[in-house]
Design the sequence.
């Protein structure tokens, strides 16, 4: 098994991109990554996307984006795992290079949600849940997450305001990320007064409907000298799944797939949770941040909100999380999100994050990309070379 | 790079499966393959599917099918490459095992099209074309293939009846395949009188809207002794792409991606076209059979219909094609088709095809799975051990 490295990164700003169709967003990020790598060609393209079929009536994104990027004959496929599609595509690129079949592969995550009405996007997003037993009875993702949050509050005796540190921190960081959707801070008071979505979840618990694309170029670790790009080692990229339906889980506030993929990632990288310098969490909703941090071994069950209140997750804290604003602040262009996390983690490892966001002395950065209500989780670890 | 082998195969009949939702079709094929392998567990699942999001409002098939198959914690993703989704998923399973990341992986292709009106399926299928420049102006796949067929007839001086041997042969073989959708022969006269679809394509040029699932279990070649299943070596499984739009091609009747993936497959397997014992072609429309046979080096440009008329492609001919009925006779459950082809090729290599379909002395069987109007092509070669 060959070891792999990221040699190039690229991203578009996360916005409502009314001016660009999905193919152009993808190509912008992809070419930025190829240029950053100092490469001229790629042999394979793995596209992370969830909803272009439902929303833009465009499937077959592998061939489409390879074509529009100017590589009309390479290997190319789309990989879908709901909101974890981005990192799942990265995993396939890693396998292709690790296997020796490809010498240079790219993963691009891309999603375009805002050309359509909010209602339609919400319905399309619900296809990540169990269509027959969840979505069909009206369980949107806000509703599923509300059930988890309600249970967590009951189980550990928290109130609504205990979750404020998560979105406040996300916005705090996002304001310094030029590619973030929400580049302004919010206060605890604003959080508590925000519009309810699905009790106890309100607007400021929820990541936004966004458009964007992010890309990585991946090569064998042993070949990084052949490229101009600044290389970051991929020490692990591990997928695990859980039951698709929340109701089939032993405990609805334990993300078993996150536990399993994080443990696999630690094992593959040969490290412990305490070795991690920073963690890009999948904060689609505030509750998921807490569950993700706990499942990854960074906090005991029920303790994440306490650690957040103590500042543990701030940029200068013991374990900075969502350092570029996370899904809440940077935005959540579904199939692109996992690739954004890895682009941001790579910037931290390279030491090229914006001044106010750069974590000191980063050796190991971890990302966790979550699909559905935790049914697919991809945990990745990047390492300084 | 580890070499890989198919150790188990499974399939459902290709039918209008009104009684089974997509998850049940997939699980039936998957468990049949696992049982056939003599295995109890799989570490990864790669699902080939194109349209469950659009038609069944269900994405996230990786986690869903892993869950319903009784493996709720394994690695699982969906792979999409239009009608080539099935073999593209097999390619990912091969990469995962070849890389050393997984010791046993399954690929399942599944599609359910008939629960919905024909019109809706047709519109959904058109998302494999360029949504902005082809589908939006009304170019369905029948229309795109009609353009190719028209051009081919003009270029090489064929008339409609010269294409009759392809569907006649497909039905001839399908009648002996218990899993085929159309288990009856057709005549040249029936073909010439069939209802027009998009001139010169008629109903009997066209593969049917179908439901079905097929699955493979893949392990490292060196480990086949640990399983009870009958092993077949995967000597190659190579993807290539072409422009998504037909209008951007240098020559609309040359399948460049098929040429490229076939050449890559021959190189990987270390063989020549003449070494191939049989070829499972992607006969979605009669014209595609001709173009696929030519692109793969089995006939010179413009000669495929002549060879068909001479009986070269019959079961007892020099190069049998579509030995289980192909897409025209067995049926074309889009994301499952590429896996059906490999299941059928594996049966030929094992020597377990139905009596009237078994090709003599099969050493190397080739399959070619095509997405869109040739924008993604996966060519695979299976070898007797």
Sequence:
């Amino acid at each position: 098994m060959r070891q792999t490295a990221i040699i190039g990164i690229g991203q578009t700003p996360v916005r409502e991109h009314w001016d660009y169709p999905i193919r152009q967003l993808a190509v912008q990020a992809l070419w930025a990554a190829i240029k950053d790598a100092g490469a001229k060609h790629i042999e394979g393209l793995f596209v992370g996307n969830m909803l272009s079929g439902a929303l833009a009536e465009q499937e077959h994104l592998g061939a489409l984006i390879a074509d529009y990027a100017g590589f009309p004959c390479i290997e190319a496929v789309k990989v879908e795992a709901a909101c974890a599609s981005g990192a799942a595509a990265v995993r396939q690129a890693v396998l292709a290079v690790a296997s020796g079949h490809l010498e240079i592969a790219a993963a691009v995550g891309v999603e375009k949600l805002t050309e359509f009405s909010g209602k339609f996007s919400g319905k399309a997003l619900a296809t990540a849940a169990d269509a027959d037993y969840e979505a069909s009875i009206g369980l949107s993702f806000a509703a599923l997450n509300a059930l988890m949050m309600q249970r967590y509050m009951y189980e550990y005796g928290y109130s609504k305001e205990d979750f404020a540190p998560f979105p406040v921190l996300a916005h705090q960081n996002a304001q310094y990320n030029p590619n973030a959707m929400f580049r302004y801070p919010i206060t605890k008071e604003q959080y508590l007064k925000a519009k309810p979505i699905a009790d106890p979840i309100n607007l400021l618990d929820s990541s936004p409907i966004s458009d964007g694309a992010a890309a990585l170029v991946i090569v064998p670790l042993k070949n990084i000298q052949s490229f101009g790009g600044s290389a970051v080692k991929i020490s692990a990229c591990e997928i695990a799944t859980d039951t698709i339906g929340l109701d089939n889980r032993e405990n609805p506030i334990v993300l078993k797939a996150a536990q399993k993929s994080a443990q696999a990632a630690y094992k593959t990288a040969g490290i412990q949770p305490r070795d991690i310098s920073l963690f890009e969490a999948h904060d689609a909703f505030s509750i998921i941040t807490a569950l993700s941090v706990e499942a990854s071994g960074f906090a005991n069950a029920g303790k994440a909100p306490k650690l957040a209140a103590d500042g543990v997750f701030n940029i200068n804290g013991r374990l900075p999380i969502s350092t570029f604003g996370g899904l809440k602040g940077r935005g959540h262009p579904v199939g692109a999100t996992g690739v954004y996390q890895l682009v941001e983690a790579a910037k931290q490892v390279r030491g090229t994050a914006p001044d106010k966001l750069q974590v000191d002395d980063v050796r190991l950065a971890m990302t966790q990309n979550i699909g559905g209500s935790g049914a697919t989780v991809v945990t990745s670890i990047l390492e300084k070379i």
About this structure: The CA atoms of residues 171 and 329 of chain A lie 5 Å apart. The first helix of chain A runs from residue 22 to 37.
